[in-house]
Amino acid sequence: MFSSSSTFGAKPSLFGSTTTTTATNPNSEDIAVEGSPDDTVQVLRFSPNVNEKPLLTAGSWDGVVRVWMVNDNGQCEGKAQQNIPAPILDLSWTDDGTKIFISAGDKEVRLWDLASNQMAVVGTHDGPVKTCHWIKGNNYSCLMTGSWDKTLRFWDMRQLPTQTSLANISLPERVFCADVLYPMAAVGLANRHIKVYNLENGPQEVKNIESQLKFQHRCVSIFKDKTNSMPCGFAVGSIEGQQKCALSKKTMVRNSLILLSTISEKQSSIF
């Protein structure tokens, strides 16, 4: 992937020095990443490709997406970056780790091909696009995006460029956070509701949960059942410094999906 013909290859780092320095605390094992964003970091994502050295990408409010290679010793080498004229709100890798989806405050979703260093608009909303997630299913692959225009949209990447969504789900409020772990998707809304979807054979809502957290949701993360690696619940964090876990009773649907049929919630504070 990083041959001389690649946009990464033998070219010098786009962020200056290709080495990193350790944190100022000599007893710390933390590594300070060279060429860090100049504005608030909105999202960090590691590449899913386990056959290559890990890639880390960051999107920030200065409209810059950066990519680093993480070496065996934990040091990070800047490899590529792209600029767009809007704050970066979310990022998602394709399953092969060669492309990155970028959702932004200018109502557009872009696809960045790292090998060619080309970027194209692959979807649009009527408001800022808060979330984007690449879905790799058993029978299909597509991109899911959530927006402040109160819609959840699904995009077919097989024919580019595409501006017509495969599915358009109207929501009662703006999308603030989302996560996907096939075949489950969890979407957090501005009204503190969380909608859970079955993604098999197209998105189908299976649960609508009102969170007991009192303030705006900041993030949601689906977790697996360690016995079968299937999604079995999710955790939600909010701006109040609280987190809540929703656990599922195992209910099989079409012999493949574990849904949230009954919910027990556990809450804790980070303070």
Descriptors for this entry?
mainly beta, 2 domains
Question: What is the annotated CATH architecture of the largest domain?
Answer: 7 Propeller
Distance between the termini: 43 Å
Biggest β-sheet strands, sense, barrel:
4 strands, antiparallel
Number of domains: 2
Strand content: over 45%
Short description:
The chain has 271 residues and is an all-beta fold.
Protein architecture, described:
By secondary structure, this protein is mainly β. It folds into two domains: 1-170, Methylamine Dehydrogenase, Chain H; 173-271. Helix content is 0%, strand content 52%. The chain contains no helices and 24 strands. The chain has strands spanning 21-22, 31-32, 41-46, 55-60, 64-70, 76-83, 88-93, 99-104, 108-113, 118-124, 129-136, 141-147, 151-155, 167-170, 175-181, 184-189, 193-198, 204-210, 217-224, 231-238, 242-248, 252-253, 257-258, 263-269. The chain has a four-stranded antiparallel β-sheet with strand order 3-4-5-6, with no helix packed on it. The model is unreliable at 1-24 and 250-271 (pLDDT under 50). It holds the Pfam family WD40. WD repeats lie at residues 88-122, 143-165. Residues 1-30 are annotated as: Disordered. Keywords: Repeat, WD repeat.
Topology:
Blueprint lengths: L20 E2 L8 E2 L8 E6 L8 E6 L3 E7 L5 E8 L4 E6 L5 E6 L3 E6 L4 E7 L4 E8 L4 E7 L3 E5 L11 E4 L4 E7 L2 E6 L3 E6 L5 E7 L6 E8 L6 E8 L3 E7 L3 E2 L3 E2 L4 E7 L2
Antiparallel strand pairs: 1-2, 3-4, 4-5, 5-6, 7-8, 8-9, 9-10, 11-12, 12-13, 13-14, 15-16, 16-17, 17-18, 19-20, 20-21, 21-24, 22-23
